[in-house]
Amino acid sequence: MMSLMAQSAERLIGRDADLKTLAGLVGIARASRGSHVLLAGDAGVGKTRLLRELRTRAVAEGREVLVGHCLDFGDSAEAYLPFTEILGQVTGALPEVVTQVADTHPALLRMAPVARLLGGADTADQEALDRGNLFAAIHALLERAAAKAPVLVLVEDAHWADQSTRDLLTFLFTRPFDGPVTLVVSYRADDLHRRHPLRRQLAEWTRLPSVERFHLGRLSDDDVRLLVGELAGDPDAGFDVESVVRRADGNAFFVEELVQAAGADELPWDLADLLLIRLEQLDATAREVVDTASAAGRDVSDELLEAVAGLDRTALDAGLRQAIERAILVSRDDGYYLFRHALLGEAVYDDLLPGERVRLHQRYVEALNRDLTTGNAAGLARHARLAGDHETALRAGIAAGDEAAATGGPDEASQHYQQAIALLAGRSHSDDDTQRLVDLVVKASDAMVAAGHADRAGKLAREQRESLPADAPGLWRAQLMTVEIETSFAYVNDVRVEALAEAAIAELPADAPPMVRARLLAAYARVLMIYRRHDDAEKAGREALALAEELGRTGLAADVAATLAGSWGRPSQAWIEPLREAVARAAKVGALHPELRARIQLGFALDAADRLDEAGENHRSAFELGVQRGVPWAPYAFDARIAWLGHLHTIGRWDDALALTDAYGIPPALWPWLESKRLMIEQGRGADVGAEARRLRPSWKQEVATASESVPVEIRAAAHRGDVGGVIEAYDAGVEALTAGWGEWFAAQARLSAIAVGAICVTIPALPVGERRQVTTQVDRIVAEGMRPVGPDRHWGLEGQAWSARLEAEGLRAHWLAGIEPPDQDNLVAAWRKSVTTFEAYPHVHELAWSRVRLAEVLRTGGDVAGARGLADLAREAGTQLGAQPLLDQLRTLGTTPQRSQTGSSDQLTARESEILALVAAGRSNGEIGKQLFISTKTVSVHVSNILGKLGASGRTEAAAIGRRRGLVD
């Protein structure tokens, strides 16, 4: 057989149509801005080759092309690696743009390569973990560059992207550019296993209108034959083309390897062996160069390779030249060498003996310790760990964590810190080591909280505190207790925070570092405020504020100012202006998390003052700020999402509210709270979700607020089954959990009681007469619990007044239905009129509609058919708008349904229903629709039933026909 020189095809084979499509998507073909593109394809299928051709076309058109690569660093990820590379390219091509952007966005300089050196990060201030300023800086950089020429950004191998890079991409995809900026992100589709972190974000990205997804398929057999001819030159000279076609399976990289291996006596079937055939053509020096490069990862700088290889320059250059000629390595313009394909580098590294790997990593450690400018702290930590050099791995891991934190990469920072903690915890402790460990736990916890994992941060601090020796200094305990207190404010509710705070203050030594004292006092002041110890809270807060200002810790000072502004010792109306000032103070110094907390408190103050629209707008702006600044799951950003979602639910914008529950990438600890909100809306539309709600009970201990939404779902589901015992059990379980979490006078009591009594009313008509007195006794108990005063220094606002009126009316209705001590008609009508009136003042669209239905039932029974019909018409209008099928069904039972309309209009369907009708008309099944829209099949079924009812259709085919006739479907 003939011997072939390794090469890549000069011509782009079999990809003309793909290139045309991709160029059209990004706007090159039509000289327009185009869409962002997610380029998917299997490993080796030709994504990089296609992007290289796309880059050539873009440059020819006058576009600025910026390329960033994600690398497989395993658990030693460096935050924002591809964008660091892109920043370097902009600095080289457009230095004046970088200078201009850095003047207004100083955070940009944190990503500059020269700033990312060992010991170069200062994370003393928690605000260093704020990614928002950095995200805005990168957005501004691309925007400013686009003012010079259209910008095409290529991010390759996103399956290896770190979490911070993925979050930054989300930010860039969701925040429009004024100038012509287009992103193309490639990834290996075959690498995305079910738990791969990129999967959920891909699902989120593909739902954005600005993002297109393009899958690069395999080459056809004919294209493979053409590619073989291009690579081999003369395939007819004894070359088995069909063998390559059969074995390559349309994968361009495999075609190249099979052609290259054609000179071997026998072609191996295993891919790794196939790749290693290429190495047999190298001499000993070139093989040593390639082996050394494989231990670095996919790429390595010329300086670092020279330092590690141990070869003189002449020998190194000869080895490199041979490896490049054999298409094993390729060189980049920035002085880096990388394997032509990641699979090739992996095969070389896997072929090394264990001892060879360790020795190579040891040499990388020695070289990086001499001069880290040839690498980075994350790389040094990785090499040291693999070399068994734990002390260097610890030192470099901490530095890598500091670097990631300073750059605004909290996920990567927490990962590096936790690896360092594991190294420290695995050896005997000196006092210095233990202090180092405590400091690391504080750093790791700060990073976890910023990334939205407050529950894990609290557990980490508690575990480390409980593992301290009995004679450990009080300073260490106080530091770890401070973290536990701070994280308990976020989401974890199983901490007896008042007792913990008092213990921490008692442990704090008089000579504690001022920053430790300031941070603990700030947390202590918040605890005291929560427990209404206002004078003590004011004293602790003022001391913390003075220390923070003296130390120049503007973020901590802003946080304390938010605590003092929201003092619960004053009427809520008096909080509003001080909280506005606290928001402004935090925003001025760029303290994102204190700003979000102050905004949340301001929203609650506005809500308590019955300024509901202002409160909703405040929560919306806080939620959007958290998303824009790249911390959607951090404390208070997530609270703002929940509060805004609740407002949308109240005012009847259910589709918008449901959209907020489709939160891909949400930390597991936060998911139950959002899920309970989704279940509440789905049940309102008729879905049977009681069992799903009950499965959320274990989460109550961690986030008791989940119970306030999931318990009503359980209660109503039990009523639908006719299970009065299930109603009472769910109510009692919810009250017990909420009392333990929120105290005796928790504000949701009246609402929970009203929902429970209303659910019992649903079951009473089917109960035997002999059981009804026992049930009304339970009703009286629940009414009495819900009517208790709300506390010594609080009063009901509009929401509380509405639910109290509803509770009173439901209690009377229960006795009326049971026939036990029934109220007279006038009293019953008056109670339900009050419920309607109060829900008109507190504009909860769904609950107002239900109050009108109940009043209509009472009026109809009393003979006032006209009055009942007027209320029913208003309720029906609301139920149709919401898609609230149970409410509409109840109206049909009431007997006030008007004649079927023959002239429907598009506004009869909600936006979601219109979307589903179009898919029904396209012949999609409920399961297919659910997968496409990322909702459950049950939910789709409920929507389809609503659509049939609204259109007066007997089935899906008729609904599609009516939809086309009325112009609801194209």
Descriptive notes:
The protein is mostly helical and 970 residues long. Among the domains are: 81 residues, no CATH class; 176 residues, 3-Layer(aba) Sandwich (Rossmann fold); 85 residues, Orthogonal Bundle (Arc Repressor Mutant, subunit A); 112 residues, Serine Threonine Protein Phosphatase 5, Tetratricopeptide repeat; 51 residues; 52 residues, Arc Repressor Mutant, subunit A (Orthogonal Bundle), CATH 1.10.10.10. Helices cover 64% and strands 4% of the residues. It is built from 46 helices and eight strands. The strands form two sheets. Strands 2-3-4-1-5 form a five-stranded parallel sheet, with helices on both faces. Helix 13 crosses helix 16 and helix 32 packs parallel to helix 34. The N terminus is likely disordered. Pfam families: AAA_16 (PF13191), GerE (PF00196). One of its GO terms (biological process) is regulation of DNA-templated transcription. One of its GO terms (molecular function) is adenylate cyclase activity. It comes from Nocardioides albertanoniae. InterPro entries: AAA_16, P-loop_NTPase, Sig_transdc_resp-reg_C-effctor, TPR-like_helical_dom_sf, Tscrpt_reg_LuxR_C, WH-like_DNA-bd_sf.
